[in-house]
């Protein structure tokens, strides 16, 4: 194999085979099925957990909606090769072009797949919250490409951050190919750069990481108050299907369950804080209050951080 790879490098120009294509074949992300959740809407449910060599950096829930004249992709994943995997699943179902991409927030495991989409469909519109665009342009894009490469031990190397250029706003609606997309932009939620997308005709809401299923999210960039309000906003839509940023698609009960984790934790931290306890002194009591979630991915890693962040949030009120 080493000899063959070396020959490909030497003779690639003569064979009209770009070197990047030869290299990409070695890092191709294995296929995951696209689950049909509504008449026009599909979700590729990624595995739970952090980006790693084992999951090839893929662990979010890319979605896509097939409209009359094209495809709208939501959160195309964490790398060039994840984005290409998403496109392979799209092409199994339709030959229509990708017309729009919606990125739910700044965390790169959701949007670095933009590179693959624009590579295949240069006219696609890349859309996101204006603050997400600003932060990406200010250096967060490079932070995330570097972080993904480190966490996957180089598996995502070669991914380039393609930043969205079209800003979307609270309550904005746009229609393409007979499908209406309603944008919700909750303030100070999971990352402070968040959008949620309602696919109106299909009664589907993509929540981004404002809601997770069987996984506890990092909240380093957001607030509990804003995240709880985002869950309430999603529930108010009364959609039939809710697609979390990570974990399986479900109904509104899943959103309420995640909201209850944050609300219960915040209330107990407030009670312990009022009793004069510091963050490390209250950990056991808070853990007992949210013990129903202890089997969720990320619980042990995030609980202490969440308590400290909740204390800081209380002190800033």
TrEMBL record:
It comes from the Bacteria. Residues 59-246 form the Metallo-beta-lactamase domain. Pfam families: Lactamase_B (PF00753). The keyword Phosphoprotein does not apply. InterPro entries: Metallo-B-lactamas, NDM-1-like, RibonucZ/Hydroxyglut_hydro. SMART domains: Lactamase_B (SM00849). The keyword Membrane does not apply. Belongs to the metallo-beta-lactamase superfamily. Class-B beta-lactamase family. This is SoxH protein, homolog. The lineage of its organism: Bacteria, Pseudomonadati, Pseudomonadota, Betaproteobacteria, Nitrosomonadales.
């Amino acid at each position: 194999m080493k000899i063959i790879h070396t020959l490909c490098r030497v003779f690639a120009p003569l064979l009209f085979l770009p070197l990047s294509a030869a290299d990409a074949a070695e890092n191709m992300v294995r296929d995951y099925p696209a689950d049909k959740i509504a008449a026009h809407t599909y979700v590729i449910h990624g595995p739970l957990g952090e980006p790693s060599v084992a999951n090839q950096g893929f662990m979010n829930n890319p979605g896509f909606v097939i409209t009359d004249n094209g495809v709208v992709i939501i959160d195309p994943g964490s790398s060039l090769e994840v984005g290409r995997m998403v496109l392979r699943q799209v092409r199994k179902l339709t030959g229509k072009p990708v017309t729009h991409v919606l990125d739910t927030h700044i965390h790169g495991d959701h949007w670095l797949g933009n590179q693959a989409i624009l590579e295949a469909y240069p006219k696609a519109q890349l859309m996101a919250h204006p603050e997400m665009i600003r932060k990406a342009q200010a250096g967060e894009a490079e932070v995330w490409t570097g972080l993904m490469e480190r966490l996957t031990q180089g598996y995502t190397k070669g991914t380039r951050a393609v930043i969205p250029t079209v800003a979307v706003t609270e309550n904005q609606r746009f229609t393409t190919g007979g499908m209406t997309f309603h944008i919700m932009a909750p303030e100070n939620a999971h990352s402070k750069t968040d959008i949620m997308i309602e696919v109106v005709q299909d009664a589907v809401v993509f929540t981004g990481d404002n809601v997770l299923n069987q996984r506890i999210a990092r909240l380093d960039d957001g607030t509990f108050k804003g995240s709880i309000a985002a869950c309430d906003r999603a529930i108010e839509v009364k959609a039939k299907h809710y697609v979390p940023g990570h974990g399986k698609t479900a109904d509104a009960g899943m959103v309420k369950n995640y909201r209850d984790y944050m609300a219960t934790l915040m209330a107990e931290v407030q009670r312990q804080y009022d009793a004069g306890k510091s963050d490390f002194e209250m950990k056991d009591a808070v853990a007992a209050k949210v013990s129903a979630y202890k089997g969720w991915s990320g619980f042990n890693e995030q609980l202490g951080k969440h308590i400290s962040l909740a204390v800081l949030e209380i002190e800033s009120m």
